[in-house]
Design a protein that fits this description.
Helices cover about 65% and strands about 0% of the residues. Helix 8 runs antiparallel to helix 9 and helix 10 crosses helix 11. With about 280 residues, it is mainly alpha-helical.
Length: about 280
């Protein structure tokens, strides 16, 4: 069998595993790596895959797809690396990782893969409801370093999985309005503390306002989730839109001889409206 693109036999996962073992045997750098030393690379590769996905979805070009392909390969390398390191210390190997994955996915889809001797459920059970039966706490298994917006979404997903959820978006929308009122109240009765040399002075007023704004953010994440939007993805796009618009302001200001650093809010706001009106 030949590959359509290269005219060579297609590379298999066994080939990649053999390559990883060979690198561990013959390359000093690869041989020196440990689970701990590889952690930064795994995190970096995951973010690079995420960025490549955004470009592939937005651009839809062969170049963007090729970048996504390559970044997925880099992420696969990390899976292979950790699997071979574990294999060398007698813990598990890549085939054990694959076996655990297949077992887990079959268990999470009992309507498609019922256990031997059992009838398949008539309805697909919720993943979170299935996983909740094995958890001792709602945050069990969530990485501590998970970005805050994503963590909030996952916590709310898990709560919804056991029935703690509004039936539609109206409930979370009203909750956002309630939390916003509480923030307004806090700001009215305890204005934010003064900045000292550009640094926020942390005191009890700051802590109270931080708590109320945290509740507001959490409720907005829940509204996003209930509306079928992931808050972190929505914020990514909002960040990109803001950066693009402000970049346009900077270019427009440069064309007109305006220094954005000293232009002032009124001028910048006027440029913002001008740029926004062109979109």
């Amino acid at each position: 069998m030949q590959d359509d693109h290269t005219g060579q036999a297609p590379v298999t996962l066994e080939d990649t595993l053999a390559l990883m073992r060979d690198l561990r045997a013959r390359c000093d750098w690869d041989r020196a790596q440990t689970h701990e030393s590889l952690r930064p690379y795994l995190i970096e590769e995951a973010y690079e895959v995420d960025e490549a996905i955004q470009h592939a979805v937005r651009d839809g070009t062969p170049k963007a797809d090729a970048t996504l392909r390559d970044e997925l390969g880099d992420l696969l390398l990390q899976v292979l690396f950790h699997s071979v390191v574990a294999e060398e210390r007698g813990a598990f190997g890549l085939h054990d990782v694959a076996h655990a994955l297949v077992t887990k996915m079959r268990a999470r889809h009992p309507h498609l893969y019922p256990p031997p001797g059992e009838a398949a459920p008539t309805e697909r059970p919720g993943w979170e409801a299935l996983k909740a039966k094995k958890r001792r706490a709602i945050d069990e298994g969530l990485p501590e370093a998970l970005p805050a917006l994503h963590r909030a979404h996952r916590l709310q997903d898990r709560a919804a999985g056991v029935g703690f959820d509004w039936p539609d978006v109206q409930g979370p929308l009203e909750k956002v309005e309630e939390e916003l009122r509480e923030v307004r109240h806090e700001l009215a009765h305890a204005p934010p503390p003064e900045l000292a040399h550009g640094l926020l002075v942390s005191d009890h007023r700051h802590a109270a306002l931080e708590a109320e704004l945290g509740d507001l953010l959490f409720s907005v994440v829940n509204l996003c989730r209930k509306a079928g939007v992931h808050a972190s993805l929505a914020l990514d796009k909002a960040n990109a839109k803001f950066a693009a618009r402000f970049g346009a302001i900077e270019r427009l200001a440069a064309e007109r001889g305006i220094d954005v650093n000293s232009a002032g809010l009124e001028t910048l706001d006027r440029l913002w409206d001008e740029v926004k009106g062109k979109k």
